Write the structure tokens for this entry.
Amino acid sequence: MNKHLAKRALVGVLGSGIAAGICLLGDWLPSRLGYCLNITPSEPVGIYRLIEGQPNRDALVLLKQPQNLRSSVLRAYVPANLPLIKRIAAIPGDTVEIDQGGVRVGGVLWPDSAPLSRDRQGNNLRPYHFGVYRVRISELWVMSNNPCGLDSRYFGPVSAGSIISRLIPVATWSSTFAAQILALAYALCLAGIAVIVATSIVSRLNALITMQTESSRC
């Protein structure tokens, strides 16, 4: 393998690692910027701003992924450290009932909340245990406004401490095509940043090796 191919291979490996590292930052980047990007169908695709405020019922929030056994359903769809965008459906003291027909909070059915047995790719989905629950202190039930959303109907209640911030939409799009374009733009941007950083690192390493080689010849 010549030096040019070796350099390109190193850039590719580093770029992939940097891209993965950016994903592992989780909520750090949105928290610093004050904005986050949603490219999932749980809520309208677009840009959201982080705001202060109590996580009241029906509030749109950015939250850390739950870590219970039931939350493993998320791992096939999003990296473990990436935060979620959901709506708070139930707060401490509320009564939640979940069955094949959907999730009811205080007897009121949450729209499009019937748990699915399979996702769009045909993979099995396991709903949370059917029954009636009293939301405990420091717990919340979070839902999405999409029949295919992954939320408390599958992983149950989440810790109130997992809430990062409330959100308000800045610019959103409801069309599937717009969502695909935004997702592609996000992926290309992420890949571009990773390649630029990796190229810079490799170039500096190459320059350092060249300088050391020339010094050893003197």
